[in-house]
Amino acid sequence: MRILPTIIALLLPLVLFAQVKETVLDENFANNGAGWPEDITDEYSASVNSGTYYLFHKRSTGSKLFDIPLRMYLGDNYYIEIVGKFNEGASDGGYGIVWGKGRGGYFSFAITPAGRFFVRKMISGHSGKYLLGPVSCPHVNKVEPDKYNKGKFTKPYNKIRVQYANDEIMFFINDQYVGHIPNELYYGNNAGIIVYGQQNVEIKKFGAFGTRNYERIKDYSAAMRVITYEIEDGVEEATGERLGNGDCRVSPGETIRLAVTMKNQGYGKCNRLKATFYSVSGHVTVIDQDVPQYLNDLDRNDTQVLDLKFKVSPACNKAELRFKVDLTDSLDRLGESVPMTVVLNTPITPINKDSKGRISFTLNLREGDYSDINSGFPITLNNAENTYAVIVGVESYMRLPKAKYATNDAKVFYNYLVKVMNVPRNNIVYAINQKATLKDVVDIFKVRGLLQAKAYGKPGIDILFYFTGLGACDISGTEPCLLLYDSNAASPVESGYPLSSLMKALRVYDVHTLACFFETSFAGVDRDGVSFVPQGSSVLSNAAFPNVTDQRTCLMYASGGNLTNPVVDNTSHGMFTHYLLSALKTAAQSRNSLDMKHLYEHIYQNMGREGSARHISVFPRMNCVNVDGIRLLK
């Protein structure tokens, strides 16, 4: 009696293939025309390259979704399949298919390196629920020791498939039926790949076959939209500042406040979102740009008013201003980015106030956490599409003392790259704290590593490197080294990353300019000036710093020779980074370019002045022969 179900399971794929005829997406990753997510952060990396989608989820817990809109009606027969393999990672992790995804949740079908599979349902704001498994499955090609190569493991490919027919969702591994569940209501029409736990995987194929009619799928989640805005113009504020000129229009040179009404036009509830306004037009500065506003829980069709205050440059000659409202949840996970357009020199309805003249904002603004240089990033027209950057920062070490404020150094420098210098996020490699081990940094700079995957072979690019953390030199005092998360003080060359190795790795690129910034001292002292290297260690010779003779390279150090690099407590930065960022912000606000000559003068003079006031010796160092020709802001 048990033979019949087995025969049916074997025949199911053949029967259903005949019913599913239309190819919605047949992706072999020869390029990224489908718009798969590509990025590198401290939590994950993703890149499409030469027929493979490389995915690396770096955290030991949780998961990461890499999905795209799928123009397929999930109410008719369909199937979605992927072909991939494990490269390395924990045995309890996994990868698989995610489908039916909207902001309200998603479904996933995944396998593990140890030969298990599971099906999960995730509802936003709640913990996931297993619909099948986890259970061992003989059809999974497991990661096992290679009997022909001692110490190595086999990394076989697996094909997994989700298939819908007759109101059931069936699951196949390497064309073998492994289980099914009743069909459920989907949250949206996104589908893609999910990676669980700490896993490095390669995806060679993604296919979706069914009926092209994605408009019939509802997204059962919140969908915030800007529906109207009103103006406050010509009103004296308590600060004495005058808003606009009273004509209820937005004009060049004015500072304006808008009451922006947002509405939940989705089918689901908006829970604990926070909203942040940004300008995506030139000649406009959003006041308190990085100060979030918090939304109440909004059901379908509920509205809420947000406060947008901005200044328009007198030189603005645009017909309209474009903004966006970034929405994230309470855990800072990305929600959505909502566009908004304001037409210049056109009448706008005045804000409706109560009997006491108060605006009916329902949000309270929260003060920024840091000083002026940590927020209110100026908008510039700087063109950095061909700029690539690597940021490495370590504050909390495994075996060494803390490098005070290094985490904030790295994060705020990243914000300046993206928001002030306009470097595309996908062009930045970011490694911080426990994600900045020696192996992690080697993987960034090695042949076919993370940086080469983005920038190698591209002519005339600009490369920026920024390091913040601890440094030391070798026993002879001739090799300065960057100390990484797992470095130790006794062997900086072996456990850290020598500057000679860094320069060798960076000189393989066809660069227009190469600029490196080092917020560290190579004297083997922490940011309080306390030595952490073994007693009797050598001091660094000034001749040990890499020599610069070409016109394209600039190296700038927080500390020359054996000096310390102290901090600025009221800004939560290393002193070098504090004045580096202040120079960038000052130049951006005044719409000026910033070359290495003026940058170094600003840093050198201010660090020297502050060091004298604090009775400490702090002088930065620069190796550069083309100080006028290499620019951070053009």
Summarize the structure.
The protein has 634 residues and is mainly beta. The chain contains eight helices and 38 strands. The chain has three domains: 3-216, Jelly Rolls (Sandwich); 224-368, Immunoglobulin-like (Sandwich); 383-633, Rossmann fold.
Q: Radius of gyration in whole Å, from Cα?
A: 28 Å
Please tally the helical runs, counting DSSP H or I stretches of 4 or more residues. 8
Largest sheet: number of strands, sense, barrel closure: 9 strands, antiparallel
Fraction of residues in H or I helices: 10-25%
Q: Structural class, please?
A: mainly beta
CATH topology of the largest domain: Rossmann fold
Return residue spans where pLDDT drops below 50 for at least 5 consecutive residues. Answer: 1-10, 13-18, 214-220, 236-240, 354-371
Q: Strand fraction band?
A: 35-45%
- What is the CATH architecture assignment of the largest domain? 3-Layer(aba) Sandwich
Round the mean pLDDT to the nearest integer and report it.
82
How many β-strand runs? 38
- Distance between termini? 77 Å
Shape descriptor reads: globular
Counted up, domains total: 3
Question: Topology, please?
Answer:
Elements: H1 3-19, E1 23-27, E2 39-40, E3 44-49, E4 52-57, E5 63-69, E6 78-89, E7 94-102, E8 105-111, E9 116-123, E10 129-136, E11 157-165, E12 168-173, E13 176-182, E14 190-196, E15 199-209, E16 224-232, E17 235-236, E18 242-243, E19 255-264, E20 274-279, E21 284-286, E22 293-294, E23 303-312, E24 320-328, E25 334-343, E26 387-393, H2 406-420, E27 428-432, H3 438-445, H4 450-455, E28 461-468, E29 471-473, E30 480-482, H5 492-495, E31 497-498, H6 499-506, E32 511-519, E33 553-557, E34 567-568, E35 573-574, H7 575-589, E36 594-595, H8 596-613, E37 621-624, E38 631-633
